[in-house]
Amino acid sequence: MELASEISHLEEKLGFKFLKYDRIDGGGFDSEKYLITSSNGKYLHKIYLKPFLSEHFDFLFSLRDVGFPSQFPLAKDPFVFRGRPSVVYTYTDGNIKLPLNDEDVASVAKLLAIWHALGSKYVSSIGKDYGLTMVHGDFHPGHLVTNEKGLNFIDCDRIGVRHPAKDIGSFLFYNALGSFSNPEVNIKAQAILFIEKYMAASQFEIKFMDVYPYLNRVASNFLVRSCELGISPKKINKREKISESIIQLISSLGR
Questions:
Q1: Would you give the distance in Å from CA 137 to the centre of its chain?
Q2: How far apart are alpha carbons 206 and 104 in whole angstroms?
Q3: Confidence band of 214 (pLDDT split at 50, 70, 90)
Q4: Among candidates 114, 48, 118, 120, which has minimal Cα distance to 80?
Q5: What DSSP line would sit under 44-100, residue for residue?
Q6: Is 8 helix (H, G, I), strand (E, B) or coil?
Q7: Which of 63, 24, 57, 67 lies closest to 42 in space, CA to CA?
Q8: Distances (CA, A) of 156 to 5, 74, 129, 130
Q9: Average of pLDDT values for 36-65?
Q10: Looking at the predicted structure, is the pLDDT value of residue 253 above 60?
């Protein structure tokens, strides 16, 4: 009864009726996700389990205004659902295509540079002195969806003001991790291609070594997460070796 009441409240706020309301996988540690199917189309409803980053809505709306390919909230003010803040986003149809080929990697690098350039206007002058911008915050190949229109960025829950290397390092690490056992993917060549294409489209001057600490942190967090999920020590050791290899690879690019 409580769920029916909340759905009715949400329908009233949005101004359209739901045909289906289904929980979907992929909420992770930060949110629960529900797919809304309505006569208007599909939407993604996220119920946040952690503090809500409402101050970054302006940036998401500005991305929508310039046609950047990403998910966008339907309303600026969050809804309250089961006592938690929640947002209804546009739903991005498509597939996650892994591993990425060189053309995909080049396209992602260019799009990320555009994202970072657009995000710089939301940073204080002091922040700009340090080369900070509005980053995705959880950027990896699994948060890229491809459809007939091309690439789209999804799951923009962790947007924040940080150094662009946060997104660059995260993408390079996870792309390499996912491709490590695939002999058809040249990890080093893709990393170099990504950096080159990003730099060509970027307004930020990023040194290769700037990426190192972000890769190191991502690698460490990945191992902690593996332990939390109860993954076997054998698999953890394998990932640790991969982490070390990727860190050495990326940190050597600028030498």
A1: 6
A2: 22
A3: low
A4: 48
A5: EEEEESS---GGGHHHHHHHHHTT-SB--BS-SSPEEETTEEEEEEE---SB--SS-
A6: helix
A7: 24
A8: 28, 14, 25, 23
A9: 84
A10: no
What confidence tens digit (pLDDT) does each residue in 70-88 have? 988 888 777 887 778 888 8
Q: What is the mean pLDDT of residues 223-238?
A: 56
Could you tell me the end-to-end alpha-carbon distance of the chain, in angstroms, rounded to an integer?
63
- Joined together, the tokens standing for residue 76 give 């600026």
- Look up residue 168 and give its two tokens: 């660059």
Structure tokens that stand for 42 in this block: 């599909």
Per the CB < 8 A criterion, the answer to whether 216 and 247 are in contact is: yes
Q: How many CB atoms lie within 10 A of CB 113?
A: 22
Interval 136-161 mean pLDDT: 89
CB 250 within 8 Å of CB 172: yes
Q: Residue 84 is encoded by which pair of tokens?
A: 């938690």
Mean pLDDT of 46-56: 72
Instruction: List residues bridging with 140 in a β-sheet.
Output: none
**Quick one: pLDDT at residue 206?**
75
Query: With contact defined as beta carbons under 8 Å apart, do 72 and 60 qualify?
Result: yes
Please report how the helices 233-252 and 187-201 are oriented relative to each other, as an axis angle in degrees rounded to 10: 50
135 DSSP β-pair partners: 160
Coil, helix or strand at residue 21: strand
Strand partners, 41: 38
Domains of the chain and CATH, by start:
2-90 (3.30.200.20), 102-252 (3.90.1200.10)
d(CA 119, CA 134): 5
Identify any residues that bridge with 59 across adjacent strands, giving them in sequence order: none
Residue 43 has pLDDT above 50, yes or no: yes
